[in-house]
Amino acid sequence: MRKSLLVAGLAVAALVPSLAFAQQTCEQQHGDQVAAAAAAVVGSEVSRPDRDCAHAYGYYDHNSQWHAMATDRADARGYYDRDGAWVDGAPNGYYDGGGRWVAGRGEASASGYYDGQGRWTPASANGYYDDRGQWVASSSGYYDSGHWVSGPTAGAYDADGHWMRGARSGHTDANGVWVADAQPGYYDGDHHWRAGPVRGYYDTQGVWIGAAVSAGGYGVDSGYQGAPRHDVDSREAWLDQRIQSAIGDAKLSGFDARADRRELDSIRHDEASMRDNQNGQLSPQNEAGLQGRLDQLSATLRQSLHGDGF
Q1: From CA 16, how far away is CA 133, in angstroms rounded?
Q2: Considering the entire predicted model, what is its pTM?
Q3: Which tens digit of pLDDT belongs to each residue from 253-301?
Q4: Nearest one of 254, 257, 245, 270 to 297, comparing CA atoms
Q5: Residues 155, 298: one domain?
C-alpha cells in the first residue's frame, strides 16, 4: 500500500512541471498586449527598452499565479500582470478569487523579498513557479513563540500556531495549478494566535494581511445574514478580514475603523474569558450574547460601508 502511494505521489510530482510548462511563458504573457498597445499608441512608453522580460521581477499568469524570473535585482524594473500589461515596480498586493487586483495596504518595501535562489517573491504569493515550471513554496518569515523571525523559509502553521518547517500549506489541483489552502489561524497585531480558518498572508515585517473572503467562503452570504449562523470564531475572523480590507480600500474612515476594531477586540477578549471559565467551551447563553454583539458589529460595519460588500 505504501509503495502504491509513493508511486502515485511521484507520478503526480512528475506531472506538475509539465502542466505548469503548458502555461504561458513571460514572452507569451505580454506579447499580445504589447502588439495591441503599439498599434494604438506609436512611440509611447510601451516601446521603452526596459519594459521586457529581461527587466522583469516576474509575471502573473492567467490563473493569477506568480512566475519568478532569474533577473538580477539591479536590472529588475517591473512585472507583467495577469492581463499581460506591464506594471512598474515590484508587485504590492494580490489577486482575489475573482481575479481582481487588491492593492497592498502597507509599505512597498514589505510586500516581497528575494529568496535563497535570488528570485523576487511577493509575500502574498506564498511561493512561485520557477523557470522549470515547478512550484517553489516560500514564505517571508514565521512566528516562533509569538516572535517574528524574518527571512525566506518554507512551512506552515498547525492549529495551535506552531510553525512546522517544510510542511505544505497548499495543493495542486487537477490542472497542476498551485492552490493555497485556508490557514488554521493567524497572529494578530499583538502577536497573539487567533485560531479559525482564514485566508491571507504576512508581509516581510510579520504583519497579517487578511485576504478578501468570497461570499461563499463560509457557506453563507457575505453579510452573515440568514441561517445558519456560523460559529463565533469564524464570524470574528471574517469581520477582522472585512475591516482590514475596507481600511486598505479606503472605504472605512480611521475613526470608524478604530471603533470597530476596539469592539471586535472586546468581543474576542470576553469570549476568551468565557472559555477559560468553561474549559474551553461556550455556554448557550454566552454564545448567544456574543452572536448578538457580532450581529450589531456587522450592522455597524455595513452602515459605515453603505452596504458595500455585504
Answers
A1: 8
A2: 0.61
A3: 888 889 999 999 999 899 888 888 877 777 878 887 888 888 889 888 8
A4: 257
A5: no
